[in-house]
Design brief:
The chain has about 190 residues and is mainly alpha-helical. It has five helices and two strands. The protein has helices at about 25-45, 50-70, 95-110, 125-150, 155-175, and strands at about 10-15, 20. α1 runs antiparallel to α2 (about 50-70).
């Protein structure tokens, strides 16, 4: 099977179900940004970090493929003629969301409380987390817009939201583990 199909040469692509849409369609922007996020998470996973975080990030990457598949499915063709769902995979569940929450709770137990915003950076690995977090927020904005136009499974949007929080806490935890300085943002006062 060849990677190139030439079917997108005129600026369109197919959704699950075969519907063709422009490559700049909000649905394509949404799942394309999830794909971008997945790549950034792979970069974090490739760093010299605790295996627990690597395993969690691999699980997140798996779930992001599910998110992408949900977003790539034409809602009018989500059901097959036999009544079964076109996507024959487990959807995003409340348990997936709870895993992220429990992971955050566990990391926060060993961190000092937040008193200020922190400047992204301090260590390359931490910076990768902050980049992934901001890409996740962009994915959430796009998915939220798509959901307003063509609603999809609510847990999917919740998962994306919780994931950006998880990535922020992971950045703080990795700063702590790597003994990187966490610089507080303290705004200058007007004179």
């Amino acid at each position: 099977m060849k990677v190139y199909t030439k079917t997108g040469d005129k600026g369109t692509t197919a959704l699950f179900g075969g519907t063709r849409v422009p490559k700049h369609h909000i649905r394509i922007e949404s799942y394309g940004t999830i794909d971008e996020l997945n790549s950034h998470i792979g970069l974090i996973r490739d760093q010299d970090i605790d295996q627990l975080y690597k395993n969690t990030l691999m699980d997140i990457q798996d779930r992001l493929f599910t998110v992408g598949a949900i977003l790539a499915t034409d809602p009018e063709k989500a059901q097959l003629k036999n009544g079964k769902a076109r996507l024959n995979i487990p959807k995003i569940s409340n348990e997936d969301i709870e895993k992220l929450e429990k992971g955050m709770d566990l990391m926060e137990d060993s961190l000092p409380p937040m008193t200020h915003f922190v400047l992204p950076g301090g260590h390359t690995t931490v910076s990768f987390c902050h980049i992934a977090r901001t890409v996740c927020r962009r994915a959430e904005r796009l998915a939220s817009h798509l959901n307003d136009l063509e609603p999809f499974q609510p847990e999917t949007l919740m998962y994306i939201n919780r994931l950006s929080d998880y990535l922020f806490v992971l950045a703080r935890k990795l700063s702590h583990d790597l003994q990187a300085e966490e610089i507080k943002w303290i705004p200058n006062k007007e004179s």
